[in-house]
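I am still getting used to C-alpha cells and would like to learn alongside you. Please make up or recall a protein chain and show it to me in full. Would you write everything just below, so we can both look at the same thing?
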Amino acid sequence: MMVRNYKVSSEAPDSSFPRAKWMLAERASRALSGAEDSGLPGFEGERVARVSVGMEDASMEGASPLSWMRGQSAFPKVFWAGRGDGLEVAAVGVADVRVGDDADGPDSLDKKLSPLLRDAERGVRYYGGLRFDAEGGDDGSWGAFRAYRFVLPRFEIAREGGELSLVCNLVLPRDTEKKEEILAEIEALSFPEEDEKFVLPRLVRRTDSPDFEGWRRNIETALAAFESGEMDKVVLARRADFSFEDDLDAALLAASLFEATPGCFHFYVEPEEGVAFVGASPERLYRREGSAIKSEAVAGTRPRGDSDADDEDLRDDLLGSEKDRAEHGYVRVGIEENLRPLCDALKVEEGASEMKGASRRHLVSRVRGTLRGGATDADVLEALHPTPAVGGYPGGEAVREIRAMEPFDRGWYAGPMGWISSDGAEFAVGIRSGLVRGEKLSLFSGAGIVAGSTPEGEWAEIEQKISDFAAVLGLDHEHAAR
C-alpha cells in the first residue's frame, strides 16, 4: 500500500503570534484527522508531518527564539544556531526521541533514526549530541544526556532563509491517539516575552579539576609519552566548577552567550528541568548536503588584539608559531586519514590559514569531499570523532591517556553537537561549553599538548578560552582566571 506523506505547507506570514498559534492548531488537527481517515490497519510504517505557519519577525515583538523557548513549560528544550548559515531553531517538547547507551554500538544511531528520516520532508531534523567518549567513566553529572540523545521536537520556532515559522512535528499515525493532548499543548504555548538581561547570582566558590599541580603532572606525563614515541599529541582538558548562591537560569545564560559570541555554532540541550549543556563553538566537525561533505582542521589559538597593530602582531605570531603549526598538522592529517575511506573524492587544503572570530583566532585547513554510496552520518561521526583537535594523535592512544589522566567525566564536552535530516546534517565540536546543574556551572576547556608545551603556557591558554563565559557571567578576573 502506498504511504502518504502528510505535508502541510505554510501560507502567507501572519504578524500575530496568537493567530499563528490558532492556525497551527487548525493545520495539526487536519493532519491528524487525515491520518485517522487513511485507515490505521493498512498504514505501512510511520512518517513525520511537519506542520508550519509562517510568521513575520514582528510577531516576536522584540523577543528572540531563545526567549520564547525559555518561556515554555514543556521539556526537553533545544536550541541550535549555525555559524553564519541563517539557521536558528528554538524547540520544546518531544515528538520522538532516540537515545543510546555505551553498549549499543556505533551503528545504533543510524538504525534508530533512519526509519523516520528516510522519506521525511525538508526541515525535519533530529537535534542532539553524543558523549566525547562512550567508554569513559560516568560520574553521574551527565545521566540525563545518555551516550547519545537526539530529539525530534514537538514545537519549534525556526528562522531559516530569512523566514520565521511556528512549527509542530507529528509522527503519524502514532500521534493520532494523542490528538487532544497535542492540541492542548498548542493552546498552552505562551506568547514571547521581551528578552531579559542575565543577572548573575552571587558566586560562592570556584574549584578547578585538576588544580595546577595536577595539571603540571599531566603535562609532564604527556611529554614523557611523546619522547617514548607512544603518541604525538594529546588534548588535555580542565573543568572549572563555579558554585553560586542561587540556581542559574541556563536559558538566559545561553541567550547572553549567543549575543556575546557571534560567528560561532550555538547549542543548548536541556533534557530535563534544571540540567542543561550550553556552548558557543567556533569549530565545525562536518556538514553534509546530500553526498557533499565538508569539514575543517582547527588548532592553535590566539586572542584578538585591542588595536589593529596588536591584532596583526597576534596573527603573525600564530601563523609563524612552529608549535601551533605542528599541532594543527596532526589535526589535518588525522581528519584526512579518517574521512578518506568514506569518500569517492576528498580535497584537503594545503597548509594553514587564519580563522578569525570575534574574540580569538585559530589556524584552519578546510576539507571538502563526496561521500561514497551507502555512507551514513553514523559512519562519518564514528570516523571523525574525536578529531585530533579534541582528542590527540594517534586517536586511540590519546583517548586512553585522557581516560587515565583527567580526574573528571567530559560527558558531552568536546562531543559532536548538531542535527541530522534526510538530506543533510551538521555537527559542531562541543567546545567552549558548560554544564548547568542548579546552582552549579561547570566550564570545560582543553589545550593541545605537543612537544614543547609547558604547564604554565597551556594553563594560561585554557583560562583565555573560557573568557567568553566569564564575560557573560560578569565574573571578575580574580574569580574567573585566578
